[in-house]
Please model this.
Amino acid sequence: MRELRLLPAAVLLWLVVMSLILTESWPIPVGLVLVGVLLAMVLKEWGQALLVGALTAVGGLMAWLRLSTAKAFTLSQPVHGTVTSTKKLDSGAQLINVQVPGYPVDLPVFLHSEQEVQPNTLISVAGKIEADTRVGIGEFIMSAQSVEEIAPPRGYAAWVNNVRDNFQTSVVDTVGESSQGLIPGMVLGDKRLQDVGETQLYIDTGLSHLSAVSGSNVAILVSSVVVVLYFFTFGPRVRVIVALLVLGVYLLLVGGEPSVLRAAATGMVSLLAVLNSSRIEPIHGLSLAMIFLLLWDSDLAIHFGFILSVTATAGIILFFPLLYKACAKFPGPDILIRAIAVAIAADLVTLPIIALMSGKVSMVAVLANVLVDAAVAPVTLIGLIAVVLSLLPGSLEFFALKLIEPFTWWIFQVATRCQQLPRSTLEVPAGWLGIAWVLCAALWIIVALHYGLAKIVAVAYLVLCTLGLWGNRAPPQVDPSQLQYVVIDHESEISQVPAGTELIIVTDPAGRAAQRPIITPDGVPVLYPQRDGEVTLHVDGSQHASDGRF
Model:
C-alpha cells in the first residue's frame, strides 16, 4: 500500500485549509491536525505523524497568512493592477480578474461596457468597491466606472496575446460557427468566442471540461510528445525533459487560471509516471497534485472546479476496475467499453457535487462523453499544430483547422442533441435532503454494477428516458404582458434594468440563436425576439423556443 502513503496528508491538508477559510479561526484546523497526528501515533506510524503534522502546519500557516494579508489590505482608488483573465457574464457584463500588488488573490472587477481589455495589460480602475460576500480569501469586489490602460502587454505577454488573437482570427475565417467557440477553447483555453448559450450547452451535457483547457488536454499533449520521442529512440531522460519544456511553453501560452493550474498538476504527475512508472501509483500522483495545488493557491480548497477535478480523478482510480468488469459483459470493442467505464465512474462520483453546485444533474453526461471521446485527442494535437502554423506566413493553418473541423462539429452536435433530449437535466430538491438523494442513488448504482446487475441498470435507464419522452408535456404558459417587463436595445444594458423587473426583452438582432434559455443571475428571463424567434414562458420558470431548440 505504498501508493497510499501521501493520501492521509493530502486529504488532511485539504480539510485544514478549507476549514480555515470557512471559519477564519484556528480551533477546528488545529483540532484536525492534532487528531491526524495522534491517530498516526496510535497506529505507530511515526513517519506519517511527522509528515501529516509538518505538511498541514505549513499549509495552514500559508492559508492563514493569505487570509490575514487580505483582511489587512487597504484598497484605494484608483486601483492599479495587471489583468489575468476576462470572462463575459450572462448579464452582458465582463468579469475582469486583476492582480493587484500586495493582494494575495485576484480582484474581481465587473465592467458594464463593451470595452475590450487584454490579459496581461496594466490598468487603472475607478468605481464602486464592495465587500466580497463569496466564501474565500478575497475581501473585495469592484464595479468599474472607468478602466484606463496604463501599459499594454509587453515582451512574452504581448506575444502570447498576439498568438491568441491571430489564432482566433484564423478560426473565424476558416471554420463554421459550430466549431468557432470550441477550437480556441480546447486548444488554448480561449473562450472569447463562446457565448453564454454555448457555455451552458456544455455544462448541461457534462462536456464543460472540453470547452476549455483541462487535465485531459495536458495528458494528451504530454503523452503524445513522449510517444513521438520514443519512436525516434530517445532515452527516458530526454523524453521527460522535452515533454516538460513543451508543457511549460503550453502553460505559459494558455495562462495561469485555476483550471490551468489543475491541468498543470495533471501534466506534472504524468511526467513523474513516465520517469518512474513502477513506483508512481495513480493515488500517489493524485495526492502529489493536491498538495502542490493547495500550497500554491489556498483558495482552491473551496473552488468547485478543484473539488470536481479531484473527485472525478479519485472516482476513476477507485471505480474504473469494478465498472470495467461490469461493462465488459456487453458486446463491443474494448476501447468503447473502457470509455464507458471511465465516463460512468467520473459522472457518478461527481453527481452530488454538481447537484450542490447547480441544483440539477445531467442525465446525458455519460452518453455525451462516450460519443465525443474519440474526437478529443485530434482536436488537441492538430489544433496545437494549427497554432504553430498560424505564426508562419502563407495561412498554412487553414488545412489543419479544416482537418479538425469535423471533430469539433461532432462535439457540438452531440452536445446540442443531448441537451434537447427530454429530461436531459434533472432538478434536485433544494437543501441537503436533495443532495442526500443524489448520493444514495449514485451509491446504489455502484452497488448494482458491483453485483453484476449492469444490464438491469441499463434497462432501467432506458425505461426512465422513455417515460420522460412520453411524459414530456410543457406546463401552462405565462402571458408576458402580465409581467413587469423592460425593453432594451442591447444586452449590455441588462445590468441597468430597475429592481422588480420580471422580464427583459432585447431588441438587438445580432448574434447566433440561443441554444438554451437565457436568464440573469437573479433569475429574470431574457428574450431576444429578433434573434431567437418566438419563445414562450411557462409557470415552472422554463422557456420553450417555437422551433424546438430548447
User: Anything to note?
Assistant: The mean pLDDT is 80.
